[in-house]
UniProtKB/TrEMBL annotation, chains A, B:
Localization terms from the record: Cytoplasm
Record key words, sorted: Cytoplasm, Phosphate transport, Transport
Predominant location category: cytoplasm
Domain PhoU: 17-103, 122-204
Protein source organism: Phycicoccus endophyticus
Function of the protein: Plays a role in the regulation of phosphate uptake.
Annotated protein name in UniProt: Phosphate-specific transport system accessory protein PhoU
NCBIfam families from the UniProt entry: phoU_full (TIGR02135)
Subunit structure: Homodimer.
GO biological-process terms attached to the record: intracellular phosphate ion homeostasis; negative regulation of phosphate metabolic process; phosphate ion transport
GO CC terms of this entry: cytoplasm
Domain of life: Bacteria
């Protein structure tokens, strides 16, 4: 019984790690599609989001069966329920990558990103990819130290997001409001992507240590947005 | 055992309904704070979000205990796990109301909303309030018919959101980009608020009928955003 339980739990964790790879790939390709105005790549991200959704359904089914058949209590139950929440977070990360891809597709053959902001978006894409890959390692190894470090990556994202916000709202913004709107939403998609990664990491910390981060309830941005660009 | 189980389940449903009232009040007050540039009201929304978060924790604890002590399977288990997801949705609705309040506070003593868009935001606020109150009734009565009708309220929100988007991105937009950024984010907060209400309604449909709406996985906007303003 215990063996079966732990095998099932391992399968769930592996599926979660797979999901993080899919989300990382999606955001990486979405960023490239955005910067290179590559509509085919954008379409591939949009289409592939169904795979992430399917992976989440798969994890839900595994988790349900595990609860129903093994009837875990206490810590074991906490792990299973938390896994279902992690799959929600990662699925949402996939949605956000898809949103980025949709903006890329919408502005094709132009790029939605003005030249002077390309560097910032490139960095946001790199941070997003790094943070979700680290999240995968954190899940695989139940690595609390790396989980805590993910908050620092998120600080980097918040800084980039703030920079973006300052440029868009500066009096010298040389572009039209359509571009400002695109940049505003894109910035929010990347920021939320990182927030969900932090939520996943904090859920792992909770599983391992029983400590709730302030944000292990999944509303990570709440603590952060006091310091971030206030309207975002 | 069954009696205790159903009593517990009723308590969870009541707590969820309470949460919808809190979220409705938060969004209603946030909208007023936004339109009237009422900083005290905005602060009250920001402070009161902790109550919604606490309510969600309470529901999580009830649900955990219920699973651990009663070991429900099949439909019963589905109901409990789905309740935890509904509490996540409603908590997030509270966060979005708080975001609206923060924009109101940030622009005080001015209003973040230009005069010609006040009507649109007033309508978005009214739709948001209506949709979350209906969501409460849907939970309380497990009312599938009303749950299905909530998708129509959401269509109204999407229409308003699209209108907003068209105005902000029109060539004649007479305001600065800071205002465009505020309006863009505010529009998204209201739209996401309605999306989460639809998710809750679809989860109730699932509990009652076993039918998954396309969006019962919580990613409601995915189906919608194909028709909505593409970048939002």
């Amino acid at each position: 019984m215990r063996k079966a339980y732990h095998d099932e739990l391992d399968r769930i964790a592996e599926s979660l790690v797979d999901m993080t790879h899919l989300a990382a790939s999606a955001m990486s390709r979405a960023t490239t599609a955005l910067l290179d105005a590559d509509v085919h790549l954008a379409d591939s991200v949009i289409t592939a989001d169904a795979d992430i959704d399917a992976q989440r359904e798969h994890i839900d089914l595994l988790s349900f069966d595990l609860i129903a058949l093994q009837q875990p209590v206490a810590t074991d139950l906490r792990v299973v329920v938390t896994s279902m929440r992690m799959s929600s977070d990662i699925e949402r990360m996939g949605d956000l990558a898809r949103h980025v891809a949709k903006v890329a597709r919408l502005r094709y053959p132009n790029s939605a990103v003005p030249p002077e902001l390309r560097g910032t978006f490139r960095e946001m894409g790199a941070v997003a990819e790094l943070i979700v890959e680290k999240t995968g390692s954190v899940i695989a190894a139940r690595d609390v130290e790396t989980a805590r470090a993910i908050a620092r990556e998120d600080d980097a994202m918040d800084r980039l997001h703030r920079e973006l916000f300052e440029q868009v709202t500066s009096k010298d913004w040389p572009h039209d409001t359509e571009t400002a709107v695109d940049v505003t939403l894109l910035g929010r998609y990347y920021e939320r992507f990182a927030d969900h990664a932090v939520s996943v990491a904090e859920r792992v910390i909770w599983i391992v240590t029983g400590e709730w981060g302030d944000e292990a309830d999944g509303s990570h941005e709440d603590a952060e947005d006091a310091d971030a660009s206030p309207a975002t």
